[in-house]
Amino acid sequence: MTPALIVLDLSLAGRNFPLVLQEICDLSPSSRVILLTVHDEATVARMALAAGAHSVVLKRSIGSDFLNAVSAVLRGDRFVSSGFGFAEILIEKA
Q: Mapped to the 3 state alphabet, what secondary structure does the chain carry?
């Protein structure tokens, strides 16, 4: 049985979070991955998306963004918290 959705905390993944994301995607390619983070640097979000995350949610915005992220990724879209400063990725399909 493959999970439809995986929620990963960047602090648990550690410094090699891109590698962890790639391994998750390799092991469970049909699962959608939401990455939670306290880091609001756009580089972190871009690295996460490039490594296979479908969504990147800032922990400080979790109340307003988490359900939006879940809805978006389960319909096949990407979601990035607005605190990263770029919204163009929101429209891009995962």
A: CCCCEEEEEHHHHCCCHHHHHHHHHHHCCCCEEEEEECCCCHHHHHHHHHHCCCEEEEHHHHHHHHHHHHHHHHCCECEECHHHCCCHHHCCEC
